[in-house]
Specification:
Blueprint: H1 5-16, H2 20-32, H3 40-53, H4 58-79, E1 86-91, H5 93-96, E2 108-116, H6 126-136, E3 143-144, E4 149-152, E5 158-167, H7 173-176, E6 182-183, E7 192-196, E8 201-205, H8 207-218, H9 230-233, H10 254-271, H11 283-299, H12 307-317, E9 323-325, E10 328-330, E11 336-337, H13 343-347, H14 349-370, H15 375-386
Parallel strand pairs: 2-5
Antiparallel strand pairs: 1-2, 3-4, 4-5, 5-7, 6-11, 7-8, 9-10
């Protein structure tokens, strides 16, 4: 067992864990031996169907990938920069394969980073560089945000947030001293500098390193056996290249499934009016805490016999992964030193209060699912908690009673000349 930072955080989180879900799972496992109506196998199958249901529709995904490439090609055309000077890569949920459908008809976003090698072009002024990217996208009437341009598409279920950046090691020497944050030792070779427009200066970022971190942890073996059907266990071949990674995720990839399910529960909590959308836990906090927890468990050589037990532990341990540094809440970016994803919590304590309340509601809802007395009530509880009903815009229920939509094909995204 490795004595690492995240292993230590997991150990501390275990002391805070209430363990309600673990007790409920133990009761199910015990009753299953005598032929109870609900089994861990049934739970796994139902969760797998939920996971498939919230996967972004394949056609919408293909359209988004096409538009994503179109933006990249437009930059080459409009800016007259060398092809090999521009690299467009995904970031956020699409790059970590945790993109999910909204529970209503609202749009989903695809985040992209345009990394430009400024050793091959002239871009000493960060604000001028940012504006030049915006001008190249003018056909889509982009709107400027703090670090990106938001591009809306007519009659699309998504929008693309496009972040101009440069490789960190190409920043002009005179600007290095003023840059905000430094790259961590992990994944430093993919570190970028993005334009922090409120401060009119460069800021360190590492979306590719962050995605690689999630992927590297997800590959680590914690599940020692699975009793799922074969289709739920197979890790699909992933030869997709940037622009956008394939989004199909099997239940055996429990880390990513946990992230997706918790993001869905958060969105449903907003839809039910449990808290305001402006106060909801942001996705990067959910992804970071769960991945830190998974890494810590892996460092402890933890082993689980089924994905439901692992999902329960990730859910219950997640709040205990939050650090307190000098009296402030801290959730570190593992790829950028000094960047605190919980920074806003320290200025607005309501955000932390909402996070805590959401975690409690999540545990209550999962416990309600585990308390189901038969398959019918289990399926109904699942649909209610994760919003997989006709009332939230989903497809009709499957024969098992669960609203499920497994994508019927694996969609490959062409490179189209850009990485």
């Amino acid at each position: 067992m490795s004595n690492t930072k995240y292993a230590a955080l997991v150990e501390a989180a275990k002391q805070q864990r209430k363990g309600r879900l673990n007790l409920a799972l133990e009761a199910i496992a015990f009753d299953s031996a005598s032929g109870a109506a609900i089994s861990l196998q049934t739970l796994a199958e139902e969760l797998d169907a939920i996971n498939q249901h919230i996967t972004v529709n394949a056609d919408e995904f293909d359209d988004a990938a096409s538009d994503y490439n179109q933006i990249a090609e437009r930059l080459v055309e409009k800016l007259h920069w060398p092809n090999d000077a521009i690299r467009v890569i995904p970031q956020g949920s699409s790059s970590t394969k945790t993109l999910i459908r909204a529970p209503d008809r609202s749009k989903f976003d695809i985040d992209a980073v345009c990394a430009v090698d400024i050793s091959k072009i002239e871009a000493k002024d960060p604000m001028a560089f940012f504006e030049k990217i915006g001008e190249a996208l003018e056909d889509w009437n982009p709107s400027a945000k703090k670090r990106c341009w938001c591009v809306e598409f007519t009659n699309r279920r998504y929008y693309i947030e496009f972040t101009p950046s440069v490789p960190l090691n190409t920043i002009p020497a005179q600007a290095v001293a003023s840059i905000r944050y430094r790259p961590s030792d992990r994944y430093s070779d993919t570190a970028l500098a993005v334009v922090d427009t409120p401060k009119a200066q460069w800021k360190t970022s590492n979306p590719e390193g962050f995605s690689n971190w999630v992927s590297d942890q997800a590959k680590r073996t914690i599940l020692v056996s699975l009793f799922l059907e074969k289709h739920a266990m197979e890790a699909l071949a992933s030869d997709s290249v940037a622009p956008v990674p394939e989004q199909l995720v099997p239940l055996s990839d429990t880390l990513r499934v946990a992230i997706r399910l918790l993001k869905r529960h958060r969105d449903m909590s907003v839809r039910r009016g449990l808290f305001d959308a402006k106060l909801k836990p942001i996705s990067v906090i959910i992804v970071t805490l769960l991945t830190q927890c998974y890494e810590g468990l892996a460092d402890q050589d933890a082993r689980y016999s089924n994905p439901i037990e692992l999902l329960a532990d990730l859910t219950q341990l997640m709040p205990g992964m939050i650090e307190i540094r000098n009296g402030e809440y801290w959730i570190e970016n593992p790829t950028v030193d000094e960047e605190n994803f919980a920074e806003k919590w320290n200025d607005n304590h309501k955000l932390k209060e909402v996070f805590d309340n959401w975690c409690e509601q999540l545990i209550d809802d999962l416990q309600s699912i585990l308390s189901s007395t038969d398959e019918r009530s289990l399926s109904e509880n699942m649909r209610r908690v994760f919003g997989c009903t006709a009332a939230t815009g989903s497809v009709p229920p499957s024969s098992s009673g669960l609203a499920s939509r497994a994508p019927d094909r694996v969609h490959k995204v062409p490179a189209r000349g850009l990485a």
